[in-house]
Backbone:
């Protein structure tokens, strides 16, 4: 098993249209995840897409299984921060592979490191900022 940091970035330029170089991306959440050493970046992206678009009720039913509690808790944070779904045009990065992937309609496309990137990975200060604002990201 290898530890990877998976960061979700929302495209703030083009809602639900494919990512293009130069689009503005904002880091909205990150999650450290133990993955089998042979896991490729696209498999990690598939995990992120599935988890961050899952209903809490669905994730709650399997919480006793390995890693399922962590999945449930990170999605709870995602929902409490009122983040929208992970969708076409958004991107993720998997550190450990140092790979950027753009979410396409049915798959993932490898992209260069975005030049127009803002936001921070999940931290105590980003959560407190969201709480102070009292609204979603």
Residues:
């Amino acid at each position: 098993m290898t530890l990877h940091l998976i960061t979700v970035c929302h495209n703030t330029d083009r809602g639900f249209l494919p990512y293009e170089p130069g689009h503005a991306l904002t880091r909205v959440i990150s999650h450290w995840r133990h993955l089998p050493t042979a896991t490729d970046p696209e498999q990690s992206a598939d995990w992120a897409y599935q988890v961050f678009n899952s209903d809490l009720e669905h994730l709650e039913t399997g919480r006793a299984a390995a890693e399922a509690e962590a999945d449930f808790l990170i999605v709870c944070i995602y929902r409490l921060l009122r983040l929208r779904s992970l969708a076409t045009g958004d991107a993720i990065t998997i550190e450990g592979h140092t790979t950027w992937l753009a979410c396409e309609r049915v798959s993932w496309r490898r992209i260069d490191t975005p030049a127009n990137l803002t936001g921070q990975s999940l931290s105590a200060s980003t959560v407190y900022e969201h709480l102070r604002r009292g609204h979603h990201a």
About this structure: The chain has a mean pLDDT of 90. Residues 68-80 form the longest helix (13 residues). The CA atoms of residues 56 and 127 lie 20 Å apart.
